[in-house]
Amino acid sequence: MANADIYTAALAADGPSGPKPKRRFSRANIFLYGTLIVVSLYYLLPLYVMLVTSVKGMPEIRLGNVFSPPVEVTFQPWVKAWAEACTGINCDGLSRGFWNSVQILIPSVILSIAIASVNGYALSNWKFKGSEVFFTILIIGAFIPYQTMLYPIVILLREIGLMGSIWGLVLVHSVFGMPILTLLFRNYFASIPEELFKAARVDGAGFWQIYFQIMLPMALPIFVVAIILQVTGIWNDFLFGVIYTKPATYPMTVQLNNIVNSVQGIKEYNVNMAATLLTGLVPLIIYFASGKLFVRGIAAGAVKG
Amino acid sequence: MTVASDPPARSHAQRPSRLFKNMMAKIASIPMILTALVVFVGGTTWTVVHSFTGSRLLPKLNWVGVDQYERLWNTDRWIISIKNLGIYGVCSMIFTLVIGFTLAALLDRKIRFESAFRTIFLYPFALSFVVTGLAWQWILNPEFGIQSVVRGWGWETFTFNPLNDPDTVMFGLLIAGLWQGTGLIMCIMLAGLRGIDEDIWKACRVDGIGTVKTYVQVIIPMMRPVFITSLVLIASGIIKLYDLVVAQTNGGPGISSEVPAKYVINYMFQAQNLGQGFAASTMMLCSVIIILIPWAYLEFGGKKRG
């Protein structure tokens, strides 16, 4: 990053002949910042609209437009979205979906990262015949559309009796999170100096001992990246949730969609927007709290293949 | 056990190769092996095989040849899905690349508050497609959203109602999709731009080439790998397009915003016509292969020759 800053500092110097007084309001600068600010407004607009809509009363929404700031702030829609909004016959709000999502999220994150980190460790330090082949299949698998594997997985889950349960979905998340996480861990473990591994081997440490006592403590940063990647990914999942769970165990995103797009009853836009924001809150908090690590996570996700 | 054929990584092949020595690694890799073989290879093969059967409610092996595919390509809904995906895909690729690169280039001009701008451009990527779709469904709502706001300013005939117009509904989805996805491409492009040697810029300045011209004629050609990575990312995202459509339009109005992924899921899990679903998903797989093979050739084939 420091290097990059030096580069940009060099780029910004205006011409080749050393420093000269900067004009803060040059035409180029106004254009630059103007464009960035206008684009920023476009990106911020939906968040703003969701926020103001969710704290207005329904009469105010019917009179005004989506952009007008609220005259009277009310948190009733948030309460209703959390505890009373209806999906079908159930009227206990999004809270059920939230707790379902939490119950899905925690074991999925732990299981998928546990499997993938061991995979990555085995693939970089304990290669065996065929390990690269499996890894290649795994990476190619990341590009196969999920639709081609949806039904066979239904059959597999039925066979082991997990279809429709939270644990079935946990398994599915672990399977589909595996390619990218394995790649992440494999690359990270490959960058750890080999001498460490060799020294431990000479001292007689085995597979698990090296993993738990040397590799795991050294890989904490990459674990954080993986956790961020998985928490946002699993929380935001809709497809697997809708297919592999039943209404009682729907994750939050599925329940949100059912609440907002239900055809019965009057549309309560403020409640809908409060529910939408509630669902988006978890990944948003992670995003704003993690900052650069989030970028690192998606960059890792981006360079797959 | 030899892994001599694998040059880049450190090979521990030289260590005494008794089978049991690596036993633990093999046992630990069982989940990966099962995933790769059973789910990825097995599942895909299973689906492709069953796409040649007349399975309806339950999968059966009653062969019907390519009947399912004939039916598929004679179904209006599938044709519309493919067209929609084409429109969405082409526009999405062009706009995502252009916007992503432009934003990255603007952020790379040593500006103040760079990280604030980057945070703003990237936050939609943290949100799910369902949240994105619902938020934009509300903003594009004809009664209260953008259309009503502009009409409120006095332009009474202003019409901007993409979500209820079969001809423009895909662009309504596109607006939301771009909002969600451009931040990621911007980040990748920015990383690419930061990787370009400062001397290139100096050389161009000495030669008197303007900033824009430098970007177009020098920097972009140099960033070819970054563009290819971005393209693959965008393309694999486009084929998966499902949640956004379900949340924002649910395929409507009518069937005018249907997409292949939705077609597959509807036929498999609602219409109880598994064979159609399998055939449609096999077509999706084919399209991925068509995209991936040239890319794999460019990425890996080129290196071998070089």
Question: How does this model look, in words?
Answer:
The complex is a heterodimer of chains A (305) and B (306). Chain A has helices at 2-12, 27-54, 58-63, 76-83, 95-125, 131-141, 147-159, 166-190, 194-202, 207-218, 220-236, 239-244, 252-260, 269-290, 292-302. By secondary structure, chain A is mainly alpha-helical. Chain A folds into two domains: 18-74, no CATH class; 95-302, MetI-like fold (Orthogonal Bundle). Mean pLDDT of chain A is 85; it is low at 1-20. By secondary structure, chain B is an all-alpha fold. Chain B folds into two domains: 19-67, no CATH class; 72-305, MetI-like fold (Orthogonal Bundle). Chain B has helices at residues 23-28, 30-50, 67-73, 76-107, 114-126, 129-139, 146-152, 169-194, 198-206, 211-222, 224-239, 243-248, 260-269, 274-305. The model of chain B is unreliable at 1-11 (pLDDT under 50). Chains A and B meet through α1, α2, α5, α6 and α7 of A and α1, α2, α4, α5 and α6 of B.
What is the C-level CATH assignment of the largest domain in chain A? Mainly Alpha
Q: How many DSSP-defined strands of chain B? A: 0
How many alpha or pi helices of chain B? 14
Radius of gyration of chain A: 25 Å
Number of helices of chain A: 15
Strand content of chain B: under 5%
CATH topology type of the largest domain in chain B: MetI-like fold
Largest sheet of chain A: none
